[in-house]
Amino acid sequence: MNRIIRIIFLDILKNKIILAYTIILGILSWSSFGLEDNSAKGLLTILNIILFTVPLVSILFATIYLYNSSEFIELLLSQPIKRKKIWLSLFLGLSLSMVLAFFIGAGIPLLVYAPDSVGIMMLVVGCLISLVFVALAFLSSILTRDKSKGIGIAIMSWLYFALLFDGIVLFLLFQFSDYPIEKAMVAVTALSPIDLARIQILLQLDASAMMGYTGAIFKDFFGTSLGLLISFLLLCFWVVVPFFISLIKFKNKDL
Amino acid sequence: MIEIKNLNKKFGKLEVLSDVDLTFKKGECIALIGPNGCGKTTLIKSILGMVIPTKGDVLFNQKSILKEYLYREQIGYMPQIGRYPDYMTIGQIIEMIKKIRNSNQTLDEDLLKAFDLEKIFDKQMRTLSGGTTQKVSATLAFLFNPQVLILDEPTAGLDPLASEILKDKIIKEKEKGKLILITSHLLSELDDMITQIIFMQDGKVHFHKTIADLLESTKEQKISKAIAKILKSQSNE
């Protein structure tokens, strides 16, 4: 297993895109922290990076990488290696490099400028979001053989989680504002990893006061250590479930 | 050594293999022939576990290969169209496969030398011609001294010199008692190599005969003529 992960990991590191991604993350984080003495604005910039850039880059890069390594996968399959091992090595190699890029680009400035619970929370959530979207990339690339279709699915799922889902939630909130749906809203956030990440971080930033009554309910739930634990578990679920489905599909795929 | 039992494969509605039953033993050199799209490559890929059968089973040394992978240590596979990561060099590919196999057996580097691949070790795969890619595939198939060799159109795309080298190597391995499975359209090339012949059509095995039988029953000297005669007599019926 390690041998294959190493080969994949080194192959990804050779790719200039990951290097560029790391540098861009670094420039954004260092400059936004450096602009003001107060680290709050820097944190908000990184929050936006976590919510938009990290998912987009993770899912797109991983999907394209998977399609481009179809030859490599085929070559490995004729060798005495388990299918599960090939797929798992690809996943570990890709996630390792995405997490490493996020850690070097955004994690180090976070630890330097905001070495408190908020900073560490953001670091962990950012790494988890990278993993979630790599896992979703595995799912979208196994769903179809067609490269352009697969990349399309990847972009659509990013759009859905990053933008559309929020719109739908907002629409529901307004439509059903006469009903006591605050508690149901907490459950609905579990359906989107980006929302889980957003709420966890916003609550740490103490901006929940601005979210009104719903914010108070969120605080009630996610503010407790049990709520925190559950939301972290849900994020982990978002890594495991898509990857597991893709693994089952890969095991039965004809190449 | 390899037993194929009642193998069926469907791609969607298209039936590619239907009820294939075959047995291959050690020391045999078998030619798998048939028109394009008759399921030769699918059959080979099922043996390798790259295609998962809809129904039926493949036994390797009396053990089912479904969900197994270690048996592939004993197979050397040369694909019809070798597809390799574009930006790796020949040297890196060979090095990588050696690492993945991690075998401590002595490597069979005959073809590596015969094809003079060492001189172009640092060439990237995407810059190689089709023939050179085939040479790399062939080298990889023979490298680990496998008990079974599966060669899908081995001489297609090779220049006469290289295909002669490959044929000599195949004959040499056959004499060592290995099982060799070849698909080919060039019947004339097979004459001095093979011991048995399987003719497939529309996903079914049409006949499976030894060469001696085939030549005797058709009273011909050459395999190509014998096959042509059989096909002609069938279309007349």
TrEMBL record, chain A:
The keyword Membrane applies. The chain crosses the membrane at residues 12-33, 45-67, 87-112, 118-139, 151-176, 228-248. This is Cu-processing system permease protein. Signal peptide: none annotated. The keyword Transmembrane helix applies. It comes from Flavobacterium xinjiangense. It comes from the Bacteria. GO terms for cellular component: plasma membrane. Keywords: Membrane, Transmembrane, Transmembrane helix. It holds the Pfam family ABC2_membrane_2. One of its GO terms (molecular function) is ABC-type transporter activity.
TrEMBL record, chain B:
Pfam families: ABC_tran (PF00005). PROSITE patterns: ABC_TRANSPORTER_2. Residues 2-227 form the ABC transporter domain. One of its GO terms (molecular function) is ATP hydrolysis activity. CDD domains: ABC_DR_subfamily_A (cd03230). Keywords: ATP-binding, Nucleotide-binding, Transport. It comes from the Bacteria. SMART domains: AAA. InterPro entries: AAA+_ATPase (IPR003593), ABC_transporter-like_ATP-bd (IPR003439), ABC_Transporter_VariousFunc (IPR051782), P-loop_NTPase (IPR027417). This is Cu-processing system ATP-binding protein. It comes from Flavobacterium xinjiangense.
